[in-house]
């Protein structure tokens, strides 16, 4: 993913909640990541999601912190805040606490936003807290790889 972003001249930012910076750690472990990775926000509290990333209070009230709507707003806010080509976000319930019947432990939403497209995906992971966080991190990285392909297709369509 770093190589593809570098090749395209794209920059990347992150907005992480349940992964607590794990995605940023994985990206920055790749040599050359400084060419594309600008930074990230670990927005664990709803106040940070709202005050820093600009997630609307109405979105948090209507859908909750763990929702596709919030994941997309987090990505949009991070992209705007840090002036990046692409932003990814992740929000979820790593457990064991915090779960409800409607939102069980392992429920994670990932968002990706760019000028070309925006998308979210819902996941339901299993395992303990560490396993859920690791799977969530992997899902973000996979969505970013897919985004590289999607953006390439969109660029070709506009030519």
Question: Any key phrases for this structure?
Answer:
disordered C terminus, 6 helices, five-stranded mixed beta sheet, 159 residues, globular, alpha/beta, Maf protein, 5 strands
What does this structure look like?
With 159 residues, this protein is of the alpha/beta class. The protein has one domain: Alpha-Beta Complex (Maf protein). 45% of the residues lie in helices and 21% in strands. It contains six helices and five strands; from the N terminus they run αβαβαααβββα. The chain has a five-stranded mixed beta sheet with strand order 2-1-3-4-5, with helices on both faces. Strand 1 (12-16), helix 2 and strand 2 form a beta-alpha-beta unit. The longest helix has 30 residues, at 129-158. The chain is globular and about 45 Å long. The two termini are 24 Å apart. Residues 155-159 have low confidence and may be disordered.
SSE layout and pairings?
Elements: H1 2-8, E1 12-16, H2 22-28, E2 37-42, H3 46-51, H4 57-63, H5 68-82, E3 86-92, E4 107-114, E5 118-124, H6 129-158
Parallel strand pairs: 1-2, 1-3
Antiparallel strand pairs: 3-4, 4-5
Helix pairs in contact: 2-6
């Amino acid at each position: 993913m770093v190589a593809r972003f570098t090749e395209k001249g794209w920059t990347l930012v992150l907005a992480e909640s349940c992964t607590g910076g794990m995605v940023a750690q994985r990206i920055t472990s790749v040599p050359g990541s400084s060419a594309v990775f600008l930074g990230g926000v670990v927005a664990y509290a709803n106040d940070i999601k709202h005050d820093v990333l600009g997630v609307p209070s109405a979105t948090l009230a209507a859908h909750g912190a763990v929702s596709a709507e919030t994941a997309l707003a987090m990505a949009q806010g991070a992209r705007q805040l840090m002036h990046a080509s692409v932003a990814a976000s992740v929000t979820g319930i790593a457990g064991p606490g915090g779960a409800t019947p409607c939102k069980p432990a392992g429920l994670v939403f990932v968002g990706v936003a760019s000028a070309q497209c925006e998308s979210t995906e819902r996941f339901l992971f299993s395992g303990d807290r560490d396993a859920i966080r690791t799977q969530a991190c992997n899902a973000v990285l996979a969505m970013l790889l897919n985004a590289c392909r999607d953006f390439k297709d969109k660029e070709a369509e506009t030519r």
